[in-house]
Amino acid sequence: MLRNALEPWHLLVVVAAVVLLFGYKRLPEVARGLGRSMRILKAETRALHEDDPAPQAAPAPPPAVEPAVVAEAEAEAEADKQEPARSSAEGGATQ
Predict the structure, then answer these.
(1) pTM > 0.85
(2) Is the pLDDT of residue 84 over 90?
(3) 19: nearest Cα among 33, 30, 8
(4) 3-state helix/strand/coil string of 6-51
């Protein structure tokens, strides 16, 4: 059924129908209007694609910290907490 859907004589019939509907004097004007419409449509679809925000990349994971570095930082923090207590204990005994 659709095997020979578009043959050359079909195109001739379509062209003849267009000429009969619009007349040969108006054909350039119709073609010009169709071309303008196609350019406008193309520009609008391009603008729609440009308006869409670009997909944002996932945020980068925080840098990995080695366990030894964490342990050293915790030990220093603990030592800082104990130092004021020692100096106040020492300072209180001398006064």
Answers:
(1) no
(2) no
(3) 30
(4) CCHHHHHHHHHHHHHHHCCCCHHHHHHHHHHHHHHHHHHHHHHHHH
